[in-house]
Amino acid sequence: MKKLSLYLTLLSGIKDCQAKHRLKFSLAFRKPYIPLVRFLVELGIINGFYVLNKRLYVFVRYFTTGAPIIQTLQKPGLNNRRIYLNAQIRHPINRPFKLVIISTTKGFMLYSTARFMGLGGRSIIEIN
Q1: CA-to-CA dists, residue 21 to 11, 51, 60, 82, 113, angstroms
Q2: Residue 54: what pLDDT?
């Protein structure tokens, strides 16, 4: 299974869990999940995670009003096409609260942070 589809599986699991108002969910553990999950904890999208018996358990976070943090997920580009975002070229982000997570040589980061650091990378997911 490709890494991008693994990341989409994890993020759509978080979104589905929030839609059902559950506090945690689990899925089969895969090593590529760990850097993304750590980044999501730093970003404040999830509260935490742990691994037990080859299962990854993720604690989902909500706004104080009880609304889910992830409203929509959008996979960038079309199937079998990778979208790379360059640090020097300004890419339009239509909505003001849209988070674009990219994979860089320094790890996962938001596109705005990567531009500030002068890094480009592969667009993983767009979160509203």
Answers
A1: 15, 22, 9, 33, 30
A2: 92
**Alpha-carbon span 18 to 13, nearest angstrom:** 9
Whether residue 77 contacts residue 50, with contact meaning beta carbons closer than 8 Å, is answered with no
Q: What confidence score (pLDDT) does residue 74 get? A: 73
Q: What is this structure's pTM?
A: 0.77
Considering only CA atoms, which of 41, 68, 43, 67 is closest in space to residue 56? 41
pLDDT in tens, 61-91: 888 888 888 877 776 655 556 666 666 665 5
Matching residue, tokens 């996962």: 108
Collapse the DSSP code of 100 into the 3-class scheme (helix H, G, I; strand E, B; otherwise coil) and give the result: strand
Give the Cα separation of 49 and 83 in Å (integer).
29
Domains in the chain, ordered, with CATH?
3-60 (3.30.1370.30), 73-127 (3.30.1490.10)
> What tokens does 59 get?
């604690």
| CA 98 – CA 52 distance, rounded (Å) | 33
